[in-house]
Every structure is written in structure tokens, then in C-alpha cells.
Design brief:
With 118 residues, this protein is mainly α. It is built from 5 helices and 3 strands; from the N terminus they run ααααβββα. The termini are far apart.
Length: 118
């Protein structure tokens, strides 16, 4: 039996990229496919890998190697919540750009408000 805690981050990234590369048709990869490819179909084991898989997919997205999708739309890597998929980023595809989230705008407003009060 494979211990999910012993799976290295590099192995997760390698498996994620391999699955994304196999899908040249642009179909997205379910992150659970990465986990199952690494530890098998035992749900108790592959579920333990879901957080590490997400962490590595976020790193790959930040490096511009994959695009993270939620409801088939690109999302900022650090803002992924709930169900998501990812796909390989095409060589000629520009990196996705994202509008600032409401949380970021709210924090900026609070910063400026604090600054004015001093």
C-alpha cells in the first residue's frame, strides 16, 4: 500500500503535467485523476492527496504552465475554491488576466481610509 504522505511534491507536479499534456484536445483534468494515478483507486488514500494536488496545481498555474478553471472559466490560482479543473496552457496562449477581487478592493479602500485618518 502506498502512503500518500510520502508522495513528493515533484511527483504530484509531474503527474499533473503528464495528464494535462495527454489531453491536447483542451479537455480539463480533474485533480482527483492526479491523486488516483499516484495512489490508486482507494478513495481513502487518494482523498488524502487532494490538498497537496491543489497546492501543486496552483504552483503550476502561477508558473504559467497550466490554467485553473472553475465552471470552465480561468480563475486566479490563489482564489480557487470548491470544484475546479485544470488544463495545459498553450505555448502561444497569453497568461490569463484577472480583475482585482472584491476582497482586494475592500482591503485597499481600508488601507487608504486608515492613511487619511492619521
Amino acid at each position: 500500500m502506498i502512503d500518500p504522505r510520502r508522495i513528493k511534491a515533484a511527483a504530484i507536479r509531474e503527474q499533473a503535467m503528464a495528464l494535462a499534456t495527454e489531453r491536447r484536445d483542451g479537455r480539463p483534468v480533474d485533480p482527483s485523476e492526479v491523486a488516483r494515478a499516484l495512489v490508486g483507486s482507494n478513495e481513502k488514500l487518494w482523498r488524502q492527496l487532494m490538498k497537496p494536488v491543489k497546492d501543486e496545481v496552483v504552483r503550476l498555474a502561477e508558473d504559467g504552465r497550466v490554467v485553473i478553471l472553475r465552471k470552465n472559466r480561468p480563475v486566479p490560482p490563489r482564489e480557487v475554491r470548491g470544484l475546479y479543473r485544470f488544463r495545459l496552457r498553450a505555448e502561444d496562449e497569453p497568461a490569463p488576466t484577472f480583475a482585482p477581487s472584491e476582497a482586494v478592493l475592500a482591503d485597499d479602500d481600508a488601507f487608504w481610509m486608515d492613511d487619511e485618518e492619521d
